[in-house]
């Protein structure tokens, strides 16, 4: 089997045309290519008059050794065997506890279960099947249950409902994560798309199946349960206090994996009181911006926009600002919706999501400005939470105090005037939006940098500064403003038995990086037990 890259396919090519493309690339007769399998596919839209796919394929050739010898160097190479490292058997004296059922927690628990450790996984919110029963529930659960620690959208704790799997990190476990999702019901194309995406509608079943696999392997999942504090003896975890409807109980364990996500403010506050070391971390905040998806398609694909092989177009932009903070787009949701993600009463938090088909009328993305520790106005490790909370409360007030979000037309925002009515772009946020002036919500430095960046982004993506485009606030939780320092072996600094991982610990920025960090945390603990 040979791996052949940089193959060009037209938008109208069919799967069976892949073998012919391989033959042409290698200058072979079609009959010499026995089979071809897609490995990776991306869109090349640099020339709007020639939008096409660039693919990599693994091909089986007739008389492969002879073919390989006469090929020019670089045209093909033996296909690598994609296999994740071995998971050694675990030797924990007590069952390990995994706190949080987002990507880090689920894949940490799965790894432990595969090692025979029989982990206990606690999930603060309602059962995944209940919580994600439909799109409406996704957007209203945080409103109906404002004390819930559940977030929806990329990087949220407990659900990560949109299912974007693009990452810039490198881990030998990435393929394992993708294959696990597919085995649990995710679409198979995430194995070869350059920007894999599952979608809320497909992800909810995959998450439930992943949980069932953990249970099948000997793990236990406890819903509506939260970690209240740790039992610490001689700088070592000796137990964890867990609270559910029946009250608080002590679980005796010497290994706890902290995978709580970036919004578990009460849990992190208590752990800080328990003596767990924490530090401030830069992050980013801003708004959600919505455009007509058709506008984005035309800007990205030109005359090819709307071709069924392309689907809804995406974008990703980054603008340097005079103050050095930078403005960038994040978690772009083609054909998606802006969703409610508040986790505390009296606050508004926005996020975004798309179904697998990405068939909605609007595109949305986070539009974020860098926030540094100097902006916290306090040297307390959790001061970033205070800044977030201030903005979320201001958004709640500007929205009218009934969980409607404040929103503003881009033209009004750039001209520094209040929006009184919306135009051609209908906001998708539910339970609804209130026309507002986002200067009443966002700090001056965020307003200033967004006003600087939007016109410049329009020069990169035509139509980005569309006057009727909508800004909905506030996007405060793109990542965590706190980091829990770790030793090289993954243990919390100064506390044996605690393994902080994922976004909430400050070590991930999306589903894939959080999932692989959870896997590595489990392996670190397993290897630590083996070496004892």
The main pleated sheet reads as:
7 strands, mixed
How many strands?
A: 23
So how many helices?
13
Strand order of the largest sheet: 14-15-18-13-21-19-20
Which helices and strands, and how do they pair?
Layout: E1 2-9, H1 18-26, E2 33-44, E3 52-61, H2 64-70, E4 76-78, E5 97-99, H3 103-114, E6 120-123, H4 128-131, H5 135-144, H6 174-183, H7 200-216, E7 220-223, E8 226-233, E9 236-244, E10 247-251, E11 256-258, H8 265-274, E12 279-280, E13 283-292, H9 293-301, E14 318-319, E15 327-333, E16 337-340, E17 350-353, E18 362-371, H10 383-398, E19 405-409, H11 410-414, E20 433-435, H12 444-460, E21 470-475, E22 482-483, E23 498-500, H13 511-531
Question: Could you characterize what this model shows?
Answer:
The chain has 532 residues and is of the alpha+beta class. The protein has three domains: 2-78, Alpha-Beta Plaits (2-Layer Sandwich), CATH 3.30.70; 97-278 and 484-531, FAD/NAD(P)-binding domain; 281-475, no CATH class. It is built from 13 helices and 23 strands. The strands form six sheets. The protein has a seven-stranded mixed sheet. Strand 8 and strand 9 form a beta hairpin. The two termini are 43 Å apart. Residues 126-156 have low confidence and may be disordered.
């Amino acid at each position: 089997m040979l791996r052949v890259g940089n193959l060009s396919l037209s938008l109208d090519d069919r799967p069976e045309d892949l073998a012919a493309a391989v033959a042409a690339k290698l200058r072979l007769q079609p009959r010499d290519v026995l089979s071809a399998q897609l490995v990776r596919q991306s869109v090349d839209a640099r020339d709007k008059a020639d939008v096409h796919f660039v693919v990599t394929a693994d091909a089986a050739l007739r008389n492969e050794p002879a073919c390989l010898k006469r090929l020019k160097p670089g045209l093909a190479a033996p296909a690598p065997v994609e296999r994740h490292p071995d998971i050694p058997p675990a030797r924990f004296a007590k069952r390990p506890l995994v706190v949080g059922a987002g990507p880090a927690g689920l894949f940490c628990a799965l790894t432990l279960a595969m090692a025979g450790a029989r982990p206990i996984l606690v999930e603060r919110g309602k059962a995944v099947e209940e919580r994600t029963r439909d799109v409406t529930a996704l957007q209203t659960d945080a409103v109906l249950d404002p004390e819930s620690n559940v977030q929806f959208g990329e990087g949220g704790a407990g659900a990560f409902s949109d299912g974007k799997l693009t990452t810039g990190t490198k881990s030998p476990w990435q393929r394992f994560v993708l294959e696990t999702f597919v085995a649990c019901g995710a679409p198979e194309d995430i194995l070869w798309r350059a920007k894999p995406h599952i979608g809320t509608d497909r992800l909810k079943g995959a998450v439930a199946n992943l949980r069932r696999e953990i249970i099948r392997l000997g793990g236990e999942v406890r819903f509506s349960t939260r970690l209240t504090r740790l039992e610490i003896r001689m700088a070592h975890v000796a137990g964890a206090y867990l609270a559910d409807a029946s009250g608080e109980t002590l679980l005796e364990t010497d290994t706890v994996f902290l995978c709580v996500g970036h919004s578990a403010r009460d849990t992190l506050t208590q752990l800080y009181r328990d003596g767990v070391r924490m530090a401030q971390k830069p992050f980013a905040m801003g708004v959600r911006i919505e455009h007509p998806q058709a506008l984005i398609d035309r800007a990205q694909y030109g005359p090819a926009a709307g071709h069924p092989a392309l689907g809804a177009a995406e974008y990703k932009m980054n603008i340097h600002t005079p103050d050095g903070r930078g403005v960038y787009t994040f978690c772009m949701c083609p054909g998606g919706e802006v969703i409610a993600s508040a986790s505390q009463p009296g606050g508004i938090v926005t996020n975004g999501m798309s179904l697998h088909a990405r068939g909605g009328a609007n595109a949305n993305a986070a539009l974020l400005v860098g926030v540094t520790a100097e902006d916290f106005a306090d040297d307390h490790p959790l001061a970033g939470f205070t800044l977030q909370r201030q903005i979320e409360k201001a958004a709640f007030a500007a929205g009218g105090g009934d969980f409607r979000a404040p929103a503003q037309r881009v033209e009004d925002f750039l001209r520094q005037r209040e929006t009184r009515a919306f135009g051609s772009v209908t906001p998708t946020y539910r339970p609804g939006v209130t026309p507002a002036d986002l200067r009443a919500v966002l700090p001056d430095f965020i307003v200033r940098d967004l006003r600087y960046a939007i016109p410049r982004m329009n020069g990169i993506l035509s139509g980005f500064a569309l006057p009727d485009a909508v800004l909905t606030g506030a996007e405060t939780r793109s990542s965590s403003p706190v980091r829990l320092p770790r030793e090289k072996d993954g243990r919390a600094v100064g506390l044996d038995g605690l393994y902080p991982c994922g976004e909430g610990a400050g070590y991930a920025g999306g589903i894939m990086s959080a999932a692989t960090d959870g896997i590595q945390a489990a392996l670190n603990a397993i290897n630590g037990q083996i070496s004892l």
